[in-house]
Amino acid sequence: MSDMEDDFMCDDEEDYDLEYSEDSNSEPNVDLENQYYNSKALKEDDPKAALSSFQKVLELEGEKGEWGFKALKQMIKINFKLTNFPEMMNRYKQLLTYIRSAVTRNYSEKSINSILDYISTSKQMDLLQEFYETTLEALKDAKNDRLWFKTNTKLGKLYLEREEYGKLQKILRQLHQSCQTDDGEDDLKKGTQLLEIYALEIQMYTAQKNNKKLKALYEQSLHIKSAIPHPLIMGVIRECGGKMHLREGEFEKAHTDFFEAFKNYDESGSPRRTTCLKYLVLANMLMKSGINPFDSQEAKPYKNDPEILAMTNLVSAYQNNDITEFEKILKTNHSNIMDDPFIREHIEELLRNIRTQVLIKLIKPYTRIHIPFISKELNIDVCDVESLLVQCILDKYVPLTCLLRS
Predict the structure, then answer these.
(1) DSSP assignments along 382-405, one per residue
(2) pTM for the complete prediction?
């Protein structure tokens, strides 16, 4: 069972005392309570029978109250597991009618958050969109700013994943407005929320490769000092900063950002840490550093991680200028390395770097050398050798006089 599912199941018990608080004038309804727990006992072995039994809770309660709210939560969860999405949506809409008066504000907020987190594991993008939009519609009258912000952020992340940037920009405008002062300036008292918005917007600009806007927002996000951000948020910001710097050829800055992103992801337990470690290795090679990135205390435990091992071996071949081994690793681990669009974007540059180093070493003992010989040694076409040689001459790595076409 996942932690998310466990949280969703256990929130009933955590709020059990709500029913009988001293501030409440209501007496425990034993029939409702028994019906609820009898229904709950059925859900693992006979979920359909549990649904019918939870329906009886709704019929017994008369006036809307907490037992009905809890029953609906369980019905949503069961229908999700049964992939009965239309019925799940109907029950969710029914549950949202309880949030204005039947249950406390804190309890309803916590419950809705847990439901949205739970269903977010679904790959049904249209379903998720309907859930978020339905929630936002219900919140118009509820005046729950915190839940409104969280739900809009979830919807924004969905639009980002679907590459619906027009819709995402509309969400971002609304989120920005909620974190501004009357003068239209960013309200620094809402620093944590501002960083969440920046992280979402930064991801959009990264995906669009809009480095100009990305750079301005990235710098702005690093200057917010009033927030205590979740490490996951800072991981996102730093990762996008690293990508921006790498695309601009600022390899050392990229290396710093990827390392900070890796540490933040590691602290938050995010699986993005391994991806960011790959990017750190990429930046390390592009900056032509002789330092092994896995020598750091934070990265060392991941050196032999199956997902990282290919990149570890790639570093070794790269630092040894072993082009044969480098290309062999790329071929053997093609999906592990090349399936990542960002890494794929920079592999050609790595190959050019290592070929340049091998070329310089190859021609050093000679005063004249035949281009076909170089072509054979580097395992590339003659035209590619010529292009590489021209660049080496322009960079003054090799003298023009050493070349002779056969």
Answers:
(1) HHHHHHHHHHHHHTTSS-GGGEE-
(2) 0.77
